[in-house]
What we know:
This protein is mainly β. 6% of the residues lie in helices and 35% in strands. The protein has helices spanning 285-295, 329-339, and strands at 6-10, 28-32, 35-41, 44-47, 57-60, 76-79, 88-95, 104-109, 111-116, 118-124, 127-130, 140-143, 159-160, 167-172, 182-187, 189-194, 200-201, 208-209, 222-223, 227-232, 242-253, 265-272, 313-314, 317-318. The longest helix has 11 residues, at 285-295.
Amino acid sequence: AGEHAGSYPITQGTLAAGTNYTIAFTGANLTITKGQLAVTASSASKVYGAALPVFAYTIAGYVNGDTQAILTGSPSITTIATAASGAGSYPITISPGTLSTADYTFVFTDATLTVTPATLTVTANAQSKVYGSADPALTYSQSGLVNGDTAAVITGALARQTGENVGSYGILQGTLSAGGNYSIVYSGASLTISKATPVVSWNNPAAIFVGTALGATQLSASASAPGTLVYTPAAGTVLAVGSGQTLSVTFTPSDLANYNVPGPKTVSIDVLPAGDLDGSGTVGLSDAVYYLQVALGAAPAPASVATPVIAPIVNGKPQPDPSRTKVNVLDVIAVLEKLVGKW
């Protein structure tokens, strides 16, 4: 008798043919072959950089009410992957190891270990710039690198929504990537473009003689953006004699959506008496000598004086004559007449 795998003799047992026969019995054997158990490795997964999981397996195919209690030992389950292996699929190999039983043979089925990407958190930094200037570098902070990885694994760059006018533009992930071992969780920010303030440039103009109307030579401000310049006093104004007189300009940009209105710009100008060639503020003998030197070619007309040519005399006073471009003896006479009180 027996139910385990093996060979068992077949005996005559109770077999009989009555009193008329004597049975000559030749026996045989009953062979019980081993059953088959299916030992299957369980598929598993882990995140990149994490330790390998404990591998499991299942066994199926028991008969006769048998359970795992009839087994001794355990199968060997291995993989070529390590804790440092990159994202991807790796075989889980199962083999007999120390697994044993008298009544069953084993059929082993391998499985797969899946390494999934780790999560890398990337947070964009808010940025700002002034209208018309170059974009600042789009920077970010990151956390979640594992396995000894450094920021060098991160490639590509952030991008932003298009647009150059004043406003707020989203900073996007762009081409930023950390390769197949990481899945980026991105948190965006904004680039804010603020209004630019135009620069108004204007140097102190050269001194002018009394009677000279303000014009483009004196009112020569420029701005770094398109717009309108308004001068005070306006073009055509004739200033009285005096030094350090204030000229002012206000600028209004054409594009008020992208530019601020700057404050007024001021300069100063000296208005000289007629005949004050040396710019001293009064007409004197030194001016007469200077005019004579210039008239004779012995000295150049000073560049600091807008119109050194003052003759002829009009209504008892010398007036600049735009038709003349050189000092002559009339200017000398006019200055001498000033010295003796004729004007």
